[in-house]
Amino acid sequence: MNYLKKFLIIAILALVVPVAVRGADPAAPESGKVIKITAKKFEYNPNKITLKKGVPVTLEFTSLDRLHGFSCPDLGIRGDILPGKGLKIQFTPQKAGTFPFHCDIFCGEGHENMTGEFIVTE
Ligand code: CUA
Fold first, then answer.
1. pLDDT of residue 98
2. DSSP state string for 2-55
3. Which of 22, 41, 51, 85 is deepest in the core (most CB within 10 A)?
4. Which 3 state secondary structure label does DSSP give 70?
5. Degrees, nearest 5: CA angle 75-80-84
6. pLDDT, one tens digit for every residue, the chain (122 residues)
7. Is the C-beta atom of 111 inside 6 A of ligand 1?
8. Cα(36)–Cα(122) distance, rounded to whole angstroms?
9. Cα(25) to centroid of ligand 1, in Å?
10. Residue 112 to residue 81: CA distance in whole angstroms
11. Which atom of ligand 1 is found nearest the CA of 39?
12. Which protein residue's CA is at the shortest distance from atom 1 of ligand 1?
């Protein structure tokens, strides 16, 4: 295997593994895993979130700067992410697929690009 290939695999793992580890937070309530997401102009981090169909999850949003929105119409969830207060959404994805989400409160020049997606697996 050439060096570049090896490097790419390690780089991808470095991006994916921390999300998986964070999702397995032992302090999480038994109602499901907790996923922490930060919001700032103009991105969510992480912005690709993998969930399992039928498994309850808690999304914990924190804003690093100002008021942002969070909306995922396909999954029927939305809320306001208030600085200093955050936003908690508990839900259970009921269908598999890829579902985009976006900021739905105007927050500046790059507002339209503040997006992400859920990947719900069977
Ligand atoms: Cu963040 Cu609009």
1. 98
2. -HHHHHHHHHHHHHHHHHHHHHT-TTS-TT-EEEEEEEETTEEES-EEEEETT-
3. 51
4. strand
5. 135
6. 565 455 433 343 454 444 444 444 444 445 679 999 999 999 999 999 999 999 999 999 999 999 999 999 999 999 999 999 999 999 999 999 999 999 999 999 999 999 999 999 99
7. yes
8. 22
9. 28
10. 16
11. 1
12. 68
> What is 3-22+29-121's CATH topology?
Immunoglobulin-like (2.60.40)
Q: How far is the CA of 8 from the centre of ligand 1 (A)?
A: 31
55-77 burial, b if ≥16 CB within 10 A, otherwise e?
eebbbebbbeeeebbbbbebbeb
What is the model's pTM? Answer: 0.74
Predicted confidence at residue 2, as pLDDT, reads 65
Query: Is ligand 1 within 6 A of the CB of residue 68?
Result: yes
